[in-house]
Amino acid sequence: MTERAGTTGLILNEPLLWEKSKTGRCGMSIPESDVPEAPLDAAFAGDGPDFPDLSEVDVVRHFTRLSQWNFGVDTGMYPLGSCTMKYNPKINEKTSALPGFAGAHPMLPPDLAQGTLRIMYELEQLLCEITGMDATTTQPAAGSHGELTAMLLFYAYHQKKGEKRTKILIPDTAHGTNPASAALCGYEAVPVASGEDGILSVEAVEALMDEDTAGIMVTNPNTLGLFENNIREVAEIVHRKGGLVYGDGANMNAVMGVVKMGEIGIDAIHLNLHKTFSTPHGGGGPGAGPVCVKAHLEPFLPVPRAVKNGDTYALRYDQPDSIGRVHAFYGNFGILIRAYTYIMSMGRHLKTASQHAVLSANYIKERLKDVLHLPFDRPCMHECVFTDKHQEPNKITTLDMAKRLMDYGFHPPTIYFPLVVHGAIMIEPTETEPKENLDQFIDAFRAIAGEAAETPDLLRESPTIPKVRRLDEATAARKPCLCG
Amino acid sequence: MAKEINDIILKDGIQYAEDHEWAQQTGETFKIGITDYAQDQLGDIVFVELPEVDTEFSKGDEFGTVESTKAVSELYMPMGGRIVAVNERLADEPELVNNSPYDDGWMIEIATDDTGDFDALMGKDAYLDMLKGL
């Protein structure tokens, strides 16, 4: 297809459900009560919720129309850097909807839940194999929740040794949630500046690491899309002072089957199943952020743990040093089935997926670097970071170019992150885009760079095609309209 | 779009810090805010978090945060002192920091016996030179 993907079509307006409501309209028949009415204290009943009165067709059309305003990975390329918006194969949905899984009650006794326990146990084994770690908890419900869980593990580890450590080192190219997770666990986050080449220097860590420091949180590959080449030396320094190394595995999509985190000095790492392992993101989630650890942290993992005794599976609660539960029951189990399905269907091609993700990002980097400023000109991992420096003379910003991409039919990349790069444009194509789509994206961005010089006002007024034009983000944040 | 350096408004009679805060002596106390350059770089400010009155800070301490549509940034004390007042208007009108960074958009007022930190800050010309060198 040589035509531009972005086009106009018939998009239908849709009011809020409360505006659509007509008193007395109803979408279902409630059966007549077959028990006698019993009086209820009015104080218990209250006024009742303010629900709109709607028919079934009102509701179906409402959500169908809203979905048509939306853009998702099923619609088109979604190169949102640091988010790994890969296509989610539909077989994941099929397996997780199997009645035996979907209908399993979390309080079933283990002898009636062998299949679900087996999935939990085997997924843990698979994630250990992929990361090179020894044990896994699948309880955490998000990446940041995994970070917090790992910080609790660090705390428990030091406490068991009779130590009270108060600080955590966090490079300026780490994920933004890292300092928040450390602070929530009572640690003081100490920033470590990355070097001129965008990666962590051994000297910078050596200067800050001491015996009051519980460890370091390293995002590898980092948020500049660069692999932390010095990770092994950094880990040695931290270990020598009795600290632990946390790997933020949010960028694991670059290195599956290529790097074993357990062999480069990482003591604990979280994985985002909703990124690397093709389960749905965000509002469509829920997410899952399992934590994989080396053997010395295993005693502290949350309980219960899925274990295998001979040919049967069980839940083990007997683990006195455990930090306890971090989620009700066993985490977001439906997501675990999707990730298990993905891993089993990909097999050894998990490595191919990572290789293609890296190749795609490097292809975009090489083909755009003559029109967009590339602050770190070296091979990247699964994402590449540009800036708006070349467009500055025309007073065109990263935001303007990102908005214009929508007219061309692409979801904008991540912008203004990482913070260490001024005016950052962070592109993560993932392995699931074929070369034709990458070329179309590149052509679109090249055309936009041309427009920035020739018709800059077009960019400032963009997007021009989508249902909703450029939003007033400042007023939206200052005076939010929170209505149903 | 960011302003050119020559378009940045700089006020006489106040002192400037490297982290782009300003301090102004008003009788016995000092008012502190962020410079026109800082607000311009941050973009539209949507939330300002300020400390409690009576909190004591040293020079360089983080006294609050400012959130724009782009990012959340820390605010650093250009000089040490005790908070005697905070600009309550910023809670509902954070845009004052953008529209009037040196006047209505002030952030905190502090008291101190030691004016050494204040005297050590940059004047208008030195701050402008620093911006040009950025």
Describe the structure.
- The complex is a heterodimer of chains A (484) and B (134).
- With 484 residues, chain A is an alpha/beta fold.
- Chain A is built from 16 helices and twelve strands.
- In chain A, a hairpin with a 2-residue loop joins strand 8 and strand 9.
- In chain A, helix 6 crosses helix 11.
- Chain A is globular.
- Chain A starts with 16 loop residues before the first helix and ends in a 6-residue tail after the last helix.
- Helix content of chain B is 19%, strand content 32%.
- In chain B, the strands form two sheets. Chain B has a six-stranded antiparallel β-sheet with strand order 1-2-3-9-8-5. In chain B, strands 4-6-7 form a three-stranded antiparallel β-sheet, with no helix packed on it.
- Classes of the chains: A alpha/beta (484), B alpha+beta (134).
Largest sheet of chain B: 6 strands, antiparallel
What is the CATH topology assignment of chain B?
OB fold (Dihydrolipoamide Acetyltransferase, E2P)
Terminal CA distance of chain A: 41 Å
| Contiguous helical run count of chain A | 16
CATH architecture of the largest domain in chain A: 3-Layer(aba) Sandwich
Our estimate of the beta-strand percent of chain B is 25-35%
Largest sheet of chain A: 7 strands, mixed
Q: What is the overall pLDDT average of chain A?
A: 94
Order of helices and strands of chain B: EEEHEEEEEHEHH
CA radius of gyration of chain B is 14 Å
Number of strands of chain A: 12
User: What is the strand tally of chain B?
Assistant: 9
CATH class of chain B: Mainly Beta
Instruction: Please identify the oligomeric state.
Output: heterodimer
User: On the 0-100 scale, what is the average pLDDT of chain B?
Assistant: 93
The SS-based structural class of chain A is: alpha/beta
User: What's the arrangement of strands in the largest beta sheet of chain A?
Assistant: 1-7-6-5-4-2-3
Number of domains of chain A: 2
What percent of residues of chain A adopt helix (DSSP H or I)? Answer: 25-40%
